[in-house]
Specification:
The complex is a heterodimer of chains A (465) and B (65). Helix content of chain A is 38%, strand content 12%. Chain A is an alpha/beta fold and 465 residues long. The mean pLDDT of chain B is 86. Classes of the chains: A alpha/beta (465), B mainly alpha (65). The interface between A and B is medium-sized, with 35 and 29 residues.
Amino acid sequence: MSDLAWMSIAEASRLLSERKLSPVELTDALLARIERLDSRWHAFIRVLPERARAQARAAEAEIAAGSRRGPLHGIPVGLKDIIDVAGIPTTCHSKIYADHKASASAVVTERLESAGAIVMGKLSTHEFAIGGPSFDLPWPPAVNPWGGNHFPGGSSSGSGVALATGMVPAALGTDTGGSVRNPASMCAIVGLKATYGRVSRRGVFPLSFSLDHVGPMTRDVTDNALLMQALAGHDPMDPGSADVPVPDFSAEIGRGVKGLRIGLVRHFYDGDEKAHPEQAKAIDTAADVLRDLGADVREIRLAPLGDYTVCCRVILASEAFAIHRHHLQERPEDYGALARQRLVGGAAFSAADYVDAMRMRARLIALTSERMAGLDAILTVSSMDPPPPIDDAEACARVYPRQARQPFNVTGQPALAMPAGFTADGLPLSLQLIGHAWTEPRLYRIAHAYEQATSWTKRRPPTIT
Amino acid sequence: MTESDETARLARAAGLDKFQAAYPDQLKSALQSASALARRLPKDLAPAEEPAHALRLASRTEAGQ
C-alpha cells in the first residue's frame, strides 16, 4: 500500500472497495497531516475535522453494508473557499465575507457529497479569486512547497498547495482567467478547465459570469477524470449550464495518441511572448514526446496572444466590477490592496467597450475553431515562467500577464494544465492541452499518454515529508 | 479636461465618490489602464457583428410546454 498522503484516488478507491482501507483511517491520516503541515503552507482557511470524520464514518458503514456509491466514496476532497458548503462560512479569503455563512451547498459540493466524497475543509484563494498573493488579508496566502517559499499560482492557490503537500488527493478550483491551470502549473499537479457550461457554477461566488468555470485538480490524469465524472452535468438553474450528454471521461484513457493530430501553438511562447528558456524547451520536448508516441504534431497559428488577453481582461474587469461595485463604494478599506486595485479597474470601461469585447470574443471563437479544424487538440504553454518567490511582489504580478490560459476562457474550450518537467533549480514547468468543446475525454487521453511516457506527476516536493 | 477632472467624472458616473475620496490614486490608475486596454479593442467591427453572449431562449420543449 502506498503512503496514504500520496495515494491516488484510483488506488484509494480500489482499496476502499476491497475493504483493505477504511475511509476513517484515510481521513484521520490526512487530518493529522493537515494539522502537522498547514501552519507552514497555509493551504486551508478552515478545516472541518468533525464534519469530515462524520462523513467518513457514514461512508465506512455504507461500504461495509455493500452500498458503495462509486469511485469517490470515502475519498477526501478540499474546496476552494468561494464554493459553498451549507452552514459553513464562504469567506472568499476576504474580510468582506469573513462571517458569510452559506445557506445551501453549491451544486458541485452536492455532487461530490452525493458521490460519497468527504469534504475536509475550505481552501485558501486569492481574495474573491482575483487579489493575490496578498499579505494584508485575514488569512495568509498559501505557499508553494516547490522551492520552499514560492508563489503557488492562483487564484486556486490553496487547492494546488493542498495537493502538492499530500494533504488531500482531490480539490476543486475555479478558473476565470486561468485560476485552475495556474496553480496546476506552479504546483506540478493536473488541473482541468472543462468546456464552459459543463460544470454548474451555482453556489460558487462569481468573478466574471461569462468566463467562470469550476474545475477538478488532482495529482494525476486518471484521478482528474474520476473527479470530473462526479462534477459534470446539466443544472437548469445555472444560466450558463449546457444541456449536453455527460460522457465517460475515462473512456479514452490508455488508448495512446497514435494517429491523433495535435497543433503546436509556438507563437504564444516564442513570438507573442518569450517564455523562460527552460519552459519553452519543455513544450518543444513535450511535442517530441507526443510525436515519438505516434501523434502527428504540426505547428499552427491562432490569433495573437495579446488579442485574447485584451478581450478577456475587458470582459473580466467589467463583469467583476458589476459584482463588486456596491462593496467598493461602501467598504473599500475592507478589501486587500490587490483586490481593490484589480476590481475597480472595471469601473473605467464604457458599455461600448464591454460590448465590443464581446463582439471581439465572437470573432476569436470563430477564428480559433477554424484554425483547429481537423485537429484533435492543441499543445501550448500554460505559464511563461516557473514560480517566483512569493515575497517578490513584482515577479508575482508578472505571472498574470505572462501566461496563455486566458484564450480558452474567452473561447470556452476545455483546457488542461499538467507538469512538463522541472528547471535546473527544481521548480515546476508545465504544458497546456486544449480540445474542441465537449471533447474532454480526448484531452485526458493525450494527457495520460504523455504522463505515462514521462515521470513528472510522480515527483514530490523535496521540502515535504 | 484634466486627468483629475476625468477621474472625478468617472467616480461620479460609476457611483464611486466615497472610493474616490479614500483611494484617488487607485481610480486614476484604473482609468489609465482601462484606456490603454480599450484602445486595443478592434476598430473594424462591422455593424452586424454580434456579441458572443447573444440571447438564447429555451425551446418550447426545454421550457416544459
